[in-house]
Amino acid sequence: MSQYWSPAVRELTPYVPGEQPRERVIKLNTNENPYPPAPGVSEALRNYATDHLRLYPDPTSHALRTTLAESYGISVAETFVGNGSDEVLAFAFQAFFCHDTPLDVPSITYSFYPVYANLYGVTLRKHPLNAQWEVDLNALANASERSGVIFANPNAPTGHAHSLEAIESLLKRVTNRVVLVDEAYVDFGAESAVTLVGRYPNLLVTGTFSKSRSLAGLRLGYAIGSPELIDGLQRVKDSFNSYPVDSLASLVGIEALKDKTHFNACRNNVITTRERTRQRLEQLGFDVLPSKANFVFAQHPDFEGAQLFVGLRERGILVRHFNTDMLNNFLRITIGTDDEMDSLIEALEAICR
Ligand code: PMP
């Protein structure tokens, strides 16, 4: 605490991401992709310094947004890019949710939403998950007087995803406020709501290059929505920084989007490994929530989450443990390579013996 901080900053509780290990470990705690980005990325990187580094990036990110638009079959005016979807989410909070009325949000979801709500003075109305640990879309839709709705699909850290049909029925009921669907994990088996954007001008979908495109180190995320919503984001962004993303991120993002073969191979590997991991965890007695993401959320009836977390850490394996009443017993385990998951299972066998 410093005397120089404003009262608002004194009140802040920042988001704390999973730890960055200093020594070599198997890192299954922050949902990164175990596979490298598309091969075209290395080629683009080799030429980058000579061709681009001395110049400012394109303030409209036109080339990247065009490639994004082409890959989703939408118009450039429906796209927005930013430094990771965390930044895009921050802009959305400022553009759409800064009102006196509450923002409807699931009680268990991505922990950055409360951080932004706190930072931008947005009140959250939290809706408990249902008995199957699923986001209760009905409760979100039923609430009255709000500044908007936000949820992740698949949800984090649970991994459950709702169908497109379920999301559309929420959109039919919430028509006068922004509905933000955070699709950070959508490529690992869920249906994207991007196909609904043309019909629902209040729908904003956010996505990231950090997970299915293996580019978490770059900070590149996007939003897709009606030109009206994109303009709102643009106004906030232009008041913050004239350049949406740097030229390196644009170049690399384009290469990653172009290579559909690599993208599909990597995500299919992750999905296959996820299902194999789920089975093996279940054989060890874990309850594993069904997941459409690149992680599983699991608890063991006989062992505390903290105990398993520490046991794994001692064996050089990092997973995520949330120290809250509701989630205390669970571990969120990122899907790594098959070898990494074999090591995880061996370590758990030893701990649970
Ligand atoms: N949304 C959710 C649900 C996430 O779990 C994450 C990753 N921590 C993000 C958004 C942010 O991803 P990034 O900023 O890397 O694009």
Automatic annotation (TrEMBL):
First-level EC class: transferase
Keyword Transferase: yes
Stored Pfam families: Aminotran_1_2
Reaction it catalyzes: L-histidinol phosphate + 2-oxoglutarate = 3-(imidazol-4-yl)-2-oxopropyl phosphate + L-glutamate
Pathway linked to the protein: Amino-acid biosynthesis; L-histidine biosynthesis; L-histidine from 5-phospho-alpha-D-ribose 1-diphosphate: step 7/9
Cofactor: pyridoxal 5'-phosphate
Domain of life per record: Bacteria
Record-listed N6-(pyridoxal phosphate)lysine modification sites: 211
Alphabetic keyword roster: Amino-acid biosynthesis, Aminotransferase, Histidine biosynthesis, Pyridoxal phosphate, Transferase
InterPro entries named in the record: Aminotrans_II_pyridoxalP_BS (IPR001917), Aminotransferase_I/II_large (IPR004839), HisP_aminotrans (IPR005861), HistidinolP_aminotransfase (IPR050106), PyrdxlP-dep_Trfase (IPR015424), PyrdxlP-dep_Trfase_major (IPR015421), PyrdxlP-dep_Trfase_small (IPR015422)
Entry keyword annotation includes Amino-acid biosynthesis: yes
Assembly, per entry: Homodimer.
Name of the protein described by the UniProt record: Histidinol-phosphate aminotransferase
Gene source species: Vreelandella zhaodongensis
Organism lineage: Bacteria, Pseudomonadati, Pseudomonadota, Gammaproteobacteria, Oceanospirillales
Encoding gene per record: hisC
